[in-house]
């Protein structure tokens, strides 16, 4: 995957940076990254899919990498994000595609396969389950369950302070984030307090404990990119949680396309058990667990992720 030379797709007065690989006549497969990530997060995935004959399109979401990065929170609502995905499909002349998302890309994915069902062949999510619309604003749930230091709440209520904190040392931020997950670690409120944890990490000298899932060179791609965009655009995705919840009212919870759910075994934020309810809302569902793998699955266990992807795609004849 060549991350240096994107094709820029215009939409809504902005530009979305895209990266196309594989034969032009191959089945289209669009990759949607998460936070705090980039299209580059698929660097270990794209070659395997392209070599298997798929037309692979990865792109930097608005606010990330080489895409435009407006500061206004209003640009990052779900309707806008799905519009950007549709613009990418249109630019490449793709009528229907397989959609694959990780982390926040999975949230976008599960909305897109319902709103753009007519343009979706199949859905693949890594880490992020499809869940029904919460009975109340999810922000209320997060605050009650995890406290006011939960990062969703901090991004909303202490936006300027958290932005300044993260921007103060982007490389240290990724040294803290891109680590392997200890086997059996359970989610506690403190683990969701990302700004507070980062403050403590900086006070400790931002140590590299040797459990990184990326090399220093790979990490530098992220820290360099975020030095250019800053962290506010990515935070704006979370700041739209209430608006996205309101937008989803009346949207069917049923996923009507064949779907693959890949769960890293040691993802303590989104463990495999969070996918259990999907058997009721995704009639054509395959679930796969990647052993000894944390949230950053494409870096942590790339061969296992690629094997799961290609096995399912081959079995389904896509």
UniProtKB/TrEMBL annotation:
It holds the Pfam family Abhydrolase_1. Residues 28-302 form the AB hydrolase-1 domain. Keywords: Hydrolase. GO terms for molecular function: hydrolase activity. The keyword Hydrolase applies. This is Epoxide hydrolase. It comes from Algimonas ampicilliniresistens. The gene is ephA.
